[in-house]
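Structure (tokenized):
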């Protein structure tokens, strides 16, 4: 990270922390000054505050810098028990205790605790205000939540959960985007799989509060068990995602160990594919599917002979046929991995042409138009192949790559995808490839003759880097 970026992030951290912290303090001061809000029973408040703090200290990362816990269930259970006259101040003060974790103290972090303080207080206050209004309308002061009836508790809990989710999600999204910027944070995927359980937990929290009011303290063990079951649901989801990411990283490491010339290639293709997807308006779930497809698109080369991958000359027709089949090797290797099946279909068709030519993989035949995701992957892969040094050709310039993509738009590449990629790349201001103007033939001749660029690569790979004999033939592109 450059110093300029670090300074920008630090400034944004200060702004977000100060703004959110001031908001949290203002909300608490307003609640304390309101005569219609009284503090709940201290012992009950302390019990639920301890549960809230525990789960906030043990949040799990369910997406890129997005953490989750069953805290909303704790808040709404407590709010229903406290009653309309104490719910808001009780829940907001509980939320105020959650942000500072042992890790923050050890690492001397101040931005996250202060920002989280304001975010949690605002979310809790907004949600429990909705709940209190749903329960308290038409009832005299000091009424219990049960006086409103179970149907109002259910409705109020559902509405409060939705409000909590909206306020919390928007505040977290704003803070993360403000500090880290759009380029460093992936749009969140599978939000429905995260927000829907949270909504259910909030509704369940309201029902647990009603259960306590009916049964009494004997319900507390049951409430505690439900809290932990909710936590385990998020923890299991986070572990599953980490296992999936680890699986993909393992394939990438295996491929790069076999072909050092492609080190970083998969990550760059994934980054380019995401850029195109964002330019075309893809949501987080679509972008994640596209990124994972890009990361596995060359896994089939694990089944291709190493000397063929590292060959410095053009491929013969027979060798080209072997390289073509690497897309089918992806199917053979990954078809039984359930979570990767949608991505395998994208990855195996990244050499299929927009006009139906090229070579196809899973679910497609010659003449079929590939999916939009496969077209995106094709453009991203080709751009990186042109602008990076390979065993058979040194890198070409970025303008040359643009010209090649546009020249083959409508036949090999989807024209919409090509223009979306160029627009996205130009907006970032980044540049890839060589700074020396070369033709494709000149670039291949340099590689075949073993000039400086290749000698440097040999120094990286070692003296035992195998060299295949140079023959006439075709390139694998």
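Design, position by position:
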């Amino acid at each position: 990270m450059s110093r300029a970026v670090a300074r920008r992030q630090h400034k944004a951290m200060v702004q977000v922390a100060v703004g959110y912290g001031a908001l949290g303090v203002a909300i608490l001061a307003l609640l304390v000054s309101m005569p219609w809000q009284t503090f709940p029973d201290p012992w009950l408040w302390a019990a639920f505050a301890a549960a809230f703090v525990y789960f906030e200290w043990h949040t799990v990362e369910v997406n890129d810098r997005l953490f989750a816990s069953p805290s909303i269930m704790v808040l709404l259970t407590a709010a229903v028990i406290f009653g309309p006259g104490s719910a808001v101040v009780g829940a907001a003060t509980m939320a105020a205790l959650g942000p500072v974790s042992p890790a923050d103290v050890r690492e001397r972090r101040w931005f996250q605790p202060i920002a989280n303080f304001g975010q949690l207080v605002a979310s809790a206050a907004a949600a429990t205000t909705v709940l209190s209004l749903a329960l308290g309308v038409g009832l005299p002061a000091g009424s219990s939540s049960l006086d409103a009836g179970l149907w109002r508790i259910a409705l109020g809990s559902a509405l409060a959960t939705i409000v909590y989710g909206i306020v919390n999600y928007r505040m977290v999204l704003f803070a993360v985007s403000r500090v880290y910027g759009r380029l460093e944070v992936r749009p969140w995927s599978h939000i429905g799989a995260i927000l829907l359980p949270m909504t259910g937990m909030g509704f369940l929290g309201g029902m647990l509060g009603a259960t306590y009011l009916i049964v009494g303290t004997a319900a507390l063990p049951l409430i505690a068990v439900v809290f932990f079951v909710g936590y385990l649901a998020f923890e299991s989801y986070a572990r599953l995602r980490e296992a999936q990411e680890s699986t993909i990283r393992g394939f990438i490491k295996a491929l790069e160990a076999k072909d050092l010339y492609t080190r970083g290639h998969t990550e760059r293709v994934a980054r380019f594919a995401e850029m195109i997807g964002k330019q075309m308006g893809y949501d987080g779930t679509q972008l994640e599917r596209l990124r994972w497809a890009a990361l596995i698109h060359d896994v089939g080369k694990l089944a291709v002979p190493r000397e063929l991958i590292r060959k410095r000359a053009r491929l013969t027709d027979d060798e080209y046929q072997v390289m073509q089949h690497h897309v089918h090797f992806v199917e053979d290797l990954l078809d039984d991995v359930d979570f990767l099946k949608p991505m395998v279909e994208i990855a195996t068709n990244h050499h299929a042409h927009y006009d139906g030519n090229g070579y196809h993989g899973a679910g497609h035949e010659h003449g079929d138009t590939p999916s939009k995701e496969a077209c995106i992957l094709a453009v991203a892969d080709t751009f990186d192949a042109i602008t990076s040094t390979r065993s058979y050709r040194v890198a070409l310039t970025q303008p040359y790559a643009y010209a090649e993509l546009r020249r083959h738009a409508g036949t090999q590449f989807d024209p919409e995808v090509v223009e979306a990629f160029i627009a996205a790349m130009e907006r970032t201001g980044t540049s890839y490839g060589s700074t020396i103007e070369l033709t494709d033939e000149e670039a291949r001749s340099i590689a075949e003759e073993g000039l400086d660029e290749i000698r440097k690569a040999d120094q990286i790979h070692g003296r035992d880097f195998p060299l295949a004999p140079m023959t006439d033939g075709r390139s694998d592109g």
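Reviewer-requested clarification: The longest strand covers residues 60-63. The beta strands are 60-63, 66-68.
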